[in-house]
Amino acid sequence: MAGRTILIVDDEAPIRDMLRVALEMADYQCLEAEDAQKAHTLIIDEKPDLVLLDWMLPGTSGIELARRLKRDEVTAGIPIIMLTAKGEEDNKIQGLETGADDYITKPFSPRELVARLKAVLRRTEALTNNEPIAVEGLLLDPVSHRVTINDKPVDMGPTEYRLLEFFLTHQERVYTRGQLLDHVWGGNVYVEERTVDVHIRRLRKALSIDEHDRFVQTVRGTGYRFSTKVTERA
Fold first, then answer.
1. What's the Rg (C-alpha) of the chain?
2. Which is more confidently placed, 35 or 195?
3. What's the CATH code of the domain at 73?
4. Does 169 lie in the same domain as 64?
5. Cβ neighbours around 117 below 10 Å, total
6. Do residue 73 and residue 143 come from a single domain?
7. pLDDT band for position 84 (50/70/90)?
8. Cis status, amide bond into 153, omega within 30 of 0
9. Is the per-residue pLDDT at 4 higher than 60?
10. Which structural domain, as residue segments, surrounds residue 32?
């Protein structure tokens, strides 16, 4: 993954310098922008592999830029990691709802940043390159459309498969039912939100081999997430 180009968007030069040094030491190429307008120009012209985007920017905010990038087909596939001093849960959810792929709260260590960045790039590249995605014995092969758990075949319908593929490429993030409908069913398809619950139940049933259904977690008042970190479902 070395040699990838990362765009750092932050209005504070010392933070950009710190991030650039950490990333260059990990063999990444870096671009820098101090505001959303310059960042958008660089994204269109240079097509970076990932954007590190500060929440608070002068003029157009990082959140607004993230929304703009995710609405545009040309830039929608570029992964975004939000950087912010805001640690409250609702701000995290707001940041992720814009389509950001991860969220890091300042202060953070350069080592943590590089690890999180690598994880996001791995997930997005696996989907782009049709590489199998593996999580603790659960394996999804995009080429053959097969799912196995500890080498045992898993039987599931096409909607459950798409739901699982989406979860595997967007781990540790909470999604509302409406967001899952847009991402998995498509924005032009009319399906009631309660339909999501039905397919979540079917997906959990399919993943019940060796208790892998525990990864599909309900987040009360919000929606669902795929996580290997928390074993108890709310």
1. 18
2. 35
3. 3.40.50.2300
4. no
5. 25
6. no
7. confident
8. no
9. yes
10. 5-128
Phi, psi for 164 (deg, rounded to 5): -65, -45
Q: 139 and 121, same structural domain?
A: no
Instruction: For residues 68-85, give the mean pLDDT.
Output: 84
Secondary structure, 3-state, the chain: CCCCEEEEECCCHHHHHHHHHHHHHCCCEEEEECCHHHHHHHHHHHCCCEEEEECCCCCCCHHHHHHHHHHCCCCCCCCEEEEECCCCHHHHHHHHHCCCCEEEECCCCHHHHHHHHHHHHHHHHHHHCCCCEEECCEEEECCCCEEEECCEEECCCHHHHHHHHHHHHCCCCCEEHHHHHHHHHCCCCCCCCHHHHHHHHHHHHHCCHHHHHHHEEEECCCEEEECCCCCCCC
CATH of the domain at 183: 1.10.10.10
* Tokens at 45, concatenated: 């012209």
Mean confidence (pLDDT) of the chain: 85
Q: Is the dihedral of CA 207, 208, 211, 215 positive or negative?
A: positive
What total number of domains does the chain contain? Answer: 2
Question: Do 140 and 124 sit in the same domain of this protein?
Answer: no
Is residue 232 situated within a structural domain? no
92 and 142 housed in the same domain: no
- Answer yes or no: do 77 and 20 share one domain: yes
